[in-house]
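Section: Multi-chain targets

For targets with more than one molecule, the full set of components is provided together so that the structure can be written out for the assembly as a whole rather than chain by chain. Components appear in the order listed by the source. The example entry contains four components.
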Amino acid sequence: MSGNVFGVLFRVTTWGESHGPAVGAVVEGCPPAIPLSEQDIQGELRRRRPGGLPSASPRKEEDRVEILSGIFEGRTTGTPISLLIRNKDADSGAYEALKMVFRPGHGDYSYTQKYGFRDHRGGGRASARETAARVAAGAIAKKVIGQVGMSVKAYTLELGGIRAENLEMDQVEKNPYYCPDSQAALLMEKKLSEAGQAGDSLGGIVEILVCGCPAGLGEPVFDKIDADLAKALMSIGSVKGVEIGAGFGAARMTGSVCNDPLTPSGFPTNNAGGILAGITNGADLILRVACKPIPSIRKEQQTINLEGEAVRLSIQGRHDVSVIPRIIPVCEAMVSLVLADHFLRQKAVQL
Amino acid sequence: MSGNVFGVLFRVTTWGESHGPAVGAVVEGCPPAIPLSEQDIQGELRRRRPGGLPSASPRKEEDRVEILSGIFEGRTTGTPISLLIRNKDADSGAYEALKMVFRPGHGDYSYTQKYGFRDHRGGGRASARETAARVAAGAIAKKVIGQVGMSVKAYTLELGGIRAENLEMDQVEKNPYYCPDSQAALLMEKKLSEAGQAGDSLGGIVEILVCGCPAGLGEPVFDKIDADLAKALMSIGSVKGVEIGAGFGAARMTGSVCNDPLTPSGFPTNNAGGILAGITNGADLILRVACKPIPSIRKEQQTINLEGEAVRLSIQGRHDVSVIPRIIPVCEAMVSLVLADHFLRQKAVQL
Amino acid sequence: MSGNVFGVLFRVTTWGESHGPAVGAVVEGCPPAIPLSEQDIQGELRRRRPGGLPSASPRKEEDRVEILSGIFEGRTTGTPISLLIRNKDADSGAYEALKMVFRPGHGDYSYTQKYGFRDHRGGGRASARETAARVAAGAIAKKVIGQVGMSVKAYTLELGGIRAENLEMDQVEKNPYYCPDSQAALLMEKKLSEAGQAGDSLGGIVEILVCGCPAGLGEPVFDKIDADLAKALMSIGSVKGVEIGAGFGAARMTGSVCNDPLTPSGFPTNNAGGILAGITNGADLILRVACKPIPSIRKEQQTINLEGEAVRLSIQGRHDVSVIPRIIPVCEAMVSLVLADHFLRQKAVQL
Amino acid sequence: MSGNVFGVLFRVTTWGESHGPAVGAVVEGCPPAIPLSEQDIQGELRRRRPGGLPSASPRKEEDRVEILSGIFEGRTTGTPISLLIRNKDADSGAYEALKMVFRPGHGDYSYTQKYGFRDHRGGGRASARETAARVAAGAIAKKVIGQVGMSVKAYTLELGGIRAENLEMDQVEKNPYYCPDSQAALLMEKKLSEAGQAGDSLGGIVEILVCGCPAGLGEPVFDKIDADLAKALMSIGSVKGVEIGAGFGAARMTGSVCNDPLTPSGFPTNNAGGILAGITNGADLILRVACKPIPSIRKEQQTINLEGEAVRLSIQGRHDVSVIPRIIPVCEAMVSLVLADHFLRQKAVQL
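Its structure, encoded as tokens over all components, is:
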């Protein structure tokens, strides 16, 4: 009811505020006998951490995960897996200056409208800190779907208007922007640096590629797999659009162009992005999400204070210039959660 | 579990196959004392029906809805509302010719992979016929949110590459394409006619505008209102992309441009599309969906038969050339269902 | 949320009021390929109907069920099964006399307190008429579990203080009280007749026996199968107690007596009633429910009217003298729903 | 799906195994602004601990709870409350001797049947240790319902055949058996001591009294409050029966005796146990649960080993002689969870 739960059979509940003692997740429905260690999860959490890059905030966070249940002798048991990540570097003071003003582009105003007062608690759950719990739970989902040959890879397709044109997947982990085009990555770095110096921020597009996805995942009518993927990705802060396969491009195609032919050796094209009528067709899944620029900028902005009076605001402190690349593992986590859930649901349908 | 239910507090379960005796819906959680008659629902169903337009199929369907429960003396009682729409014109014979072949762009292949055999039943639920139940249930949701001043209006922003440039809302119901630009509507008609004669089909973009939406709707973390809207719209057949406010355009903006300033008199811009951090901010909601072209075309296509052998296919019969405009009331229904549900959820949060 | 749904994987939603046009149910999650006809359901509905017996009301109801979806060529398809039963004999007039008074032992007072006014609608859903939908849905569950060898049989263990001592299962369907002791059945008939003449009513105990139940059904912690069975049975109007196996008798046993020994050939005793730690153990399930006497009696009672003033009330009209035997098929339906659901859940656990 | 979640609006998810690092719970839907400290929860956990009494096991457990989220400045915030209780005294060795044999009356056999192998993990979740998480979550529910004047009190009505006849509520916390009859408590102590010396165990009956419960709680049809209470209580290990108000006694009453009259000053009797048609009527709620004797006994028993061969078993180690009194706070917790949930649901109905 209150929006802290995701999934049906493979289900995650997250909890925790950015400035409380910890964040965490409970993962239910994970099949038994899957090898799982804290290191598996730690690896994904590390990818989410800022790394001293132009695009990253200097907040240091060890993000050490502790598995509290559901594992016996290095394998899952089928019972709920409880994950705990202590908060270490929570400096509430930095937010004092913003207490009396609504930051443009942030949830300050909408949360205040929702809860009837300036909502420190909501801010707590709305914080990007919450995504640590998603990434930790997503790491388990990744292990599950990895067991049956699925891989999920997100990467930067566009950042600040710079487009990756030459997609080489082996480049993705070799630059700090998870960009498959190493040349574009250099341009992105420059663009981020310039925007940061100008006290501004940048948006971009992340593409997610799922390989090895079996055909048949997704449920008719409301729980089509593209519907659940769209929800999963749109639930990440900053995401303003989701498309699958040809996406918005399909709106300008004719049927004879858009339809992917079937041949004895498979689909030669993939405008469908691997999904037909809400069910996977065995081709790779291709999704893209549009990320808006980070709303916290040093550049002066027009806003109002709690009394509704016009004020000018320049947000100080060290903020990321773009949600890219830190949103990359979060996108992978959310897609992995959907796939693990629908994989189990499809198993159940086959009864 | 099986994907036939949508919503949490305002919840709809749909049932029925295109070639069975009926389709219908059960609506749970509708607040009591709301005036509701079969005519309210019939009006929405009429908008979904084909109307002899170039874009429409000639299949005649009366689509008379019967309310079987939940109403007393013209008002809702708070108990489940059961809706029944008999199927009248179901000619299964037309599909016989397609029995042994997978239609490109359709769910034929993915459903077969899912259920292990050529799935007439899945086809039944995957049929656009199912959307009659959505529209009927959505009509009730529309009444509910209408009681508190919300209105939902979908219209054609683009069809076959023709863009509505001059948006005049009073034009929307005056042309068969629900296009707010009457000049563009004429061009769309021409384009549809040409594509139909060529045995091809067209895609387009539908925009949905929600006026009067109160601030504060949506739940933190996974059930953000944009996440639920994305799921709702992506669950409609043919939809390949969803965006909110500036959408994919936001990916190329800087923060100083994208952030909507707050002023004592409101938001002068609406790049956020009325949603910040997953919670409505009181501005209009603006969403867009990308619709792919209808996959059933007369033009010859390459495909395979059930034995996996290459065959050529030309789909005969009278099919719509575009899901626009018939998808328009379906978009409105799905958005209304999300708003009614989150309106009730917000009420519950305020306990 | 609103209490109209039961089950997780095999799930039923009921709808309809006693004095509206119809009652019905939507059954989701029924596995495909199970033979199912309206006759299967009709047979169960017939058992629920009054039959001119001393214990039954003369209200005539054809209770013809119509299957509106989910069946193709006589078999289930896996899609939602919609069931419709029209109301035919709804004489609201009979209730006019009771409009201004709270009937003792009825939901009149509690519903008024819940909804803030004298609740005709709540009365509608609280009516025993709603159990027709349960029985119809339960008939489908019975078919499902019958496929894997389970049978569910309810019978009268006690009525008006008369206890069936000599349990012969082949007698159950041979007398109108579903009593396995034919001698006791005669005494029950006499007792019912006397109570009816005295303007009073009787309670009793129904026992439910499940044969062929595989070991392993039930989920740890909250969804133990005995927990779900208790909820299922306690949700039937008139039921004030549920016990399993030795039940309340176990409270007076020592461990050495209560523990059922395990032997190479099975369990020689069954104090557990077939359930250990919330999981079935392969023995027969044995449950008992305590039914209170029907509260509508001709005998004068003390009550209050809507203004809270003391009044005397004698309820006229022809009412059943006991919920037994009409509650028998309802008990079987509810137990069958739980078993079908947990059977599917166990299948899903085995992934 | 997997049975680790209880409740709809006030919802608890428990996790953790008896021999893992910790157990815990996540409580969702707790209303904001309720004062809550770790001490509130600690007090309830202390009541669940063994206390050196004849009936208690000597296993020492500090059971210190840590609140990890959802609290700000001593009050709830409305976000999920995460509770952590580390396991300290987990001696797996004691169970080695039982590895190859099925203990009568335990879940050993049914869990093995369910999961296909001797289930240490299931044992982990099936352990009474899990009830620490229930009691911790229940303490929060108790605070919530305490805010609106409800109190939940469980006490021993019967133990080893000794019945409390003279119920004085102020005696309940004055003896280690939570028995409202101080004379009976002495007899119970003697009986426990004798049974313990004989290597046997005892069952009993716990009564739960809810005072201050407002009228109107419960939902029609399946989620009647008695149905949910029955499920809640039957989900506790050892419980074999649940009854409400007159319970099984009602089966032998006539309607004229069983019906509680309504008078201008309330209900002079309470055979209904405070619930009519599944909705509370404003009277006290009265429930009783039958607890079977603890199955782990020193007395030799007949059973089989993993190979299915007949063996004799005498269970060594120090086990409780009865689940009473340690089950008392667990009963209170489960009833409190149901009341908190239905209190919020009733609030939501009133929209």
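The two ends of chain C are 29 Å apart (CA to CA).
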